[in-house]
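$ ./design --mode recover --in tokens.txt
reading tokens...
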């Protein structure tokens, strides 16, 4: 039933467009009632991301099962690979969703909220592993953000290629930067320049990758607390100077 609803929704999204498709249209094509739809999906947006709740639960369980023998940075990188596996299970669906999400601002906002939840799960685990360190919370947040940024950069590169090539190798390459910078084998933390601001380890000097592998530019956008996600997405697109479809 769940898979049938997802299939019906994406068929209609491709034929009519996301905004022009209603929940009633989806259930009519799937041959079920509205109650059945909302048993599986709280909203139309959720049918676009049917597997993220399961993946987030798997990631949380994976991190909860970690022991002291697991190097924490390597562990969160492995947790991020669970997200890649979710996308790689069905490349054609993942590419369709990527294209649809680029076209619909509301879905981009929804996706940002999902990404934030993944990042929080990674950061919560790292906070526990770095507890007692003066810079523990800061280090946890920075590493979690770096893991998500590296993973997403590689994932989007793979999606833009229509799911061609080895997604795992692309993500491994990106996560290698994070592990080199922050992992156990990475450089030792530099002395703090001010007692109130403990220093993070300096990034290693990487040789510049080929042009087609270089990371995209990074843009930092400051938004007021409580701003709706669609407004945050709009501010990001304005800062990028384009419509966000890159």
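writing sequence...
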């Amino acid at each position: 039933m769940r898979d049938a609803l997802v299939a019906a929704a994406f068929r209609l999204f491709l034929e009519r467009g996301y905004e022009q498709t209603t929940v009633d249209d989806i259930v009519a094509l799937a041959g079920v009632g509205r109650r059945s739809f909302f048993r599986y999906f709280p909203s139309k947006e959720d049918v676009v991301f049917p597997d993220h709740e399961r993946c987030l639960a798997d990631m949380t369980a994976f991190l909860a099962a970690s022991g002291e023998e697991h190097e924490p940075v390597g562990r969160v990188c492995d947790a991020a690979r669970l997200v890649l596996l979710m996308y790689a299970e069905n490349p054609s669906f993942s590419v369709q969703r990527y294209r649809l999400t680029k076209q619909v601002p509301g879905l981009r906002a929804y996706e940002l909220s999902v990404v934030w939840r993944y990042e929080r799960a990674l950061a919560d685990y790292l906070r526990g592993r770095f507890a007692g360190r003066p810079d523990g919370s800061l280090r946890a947040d920075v590493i979690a953000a770096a893991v998500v940024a590296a993973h997403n950069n590689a994932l989007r590169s793979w999606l833009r290629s229509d799911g061609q090539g080895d997604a795992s190798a692309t993500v491994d390459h990106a996560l290698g930067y994070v592990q080199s910078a922050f992992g156990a084998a990475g450089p030792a933390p530099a002395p703090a320049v001010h007692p109130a601001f403990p220093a993070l380890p300096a990034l290693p000097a990487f040789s510049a990758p080929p042009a087609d592998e270089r990371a995209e530019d990074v843009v930092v956008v400051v938004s007021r607390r409580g701003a709706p996600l669609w407004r945050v997405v709009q501010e990001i697109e304005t800062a990028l100077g384009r419509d966000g479809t890159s």
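exit 0
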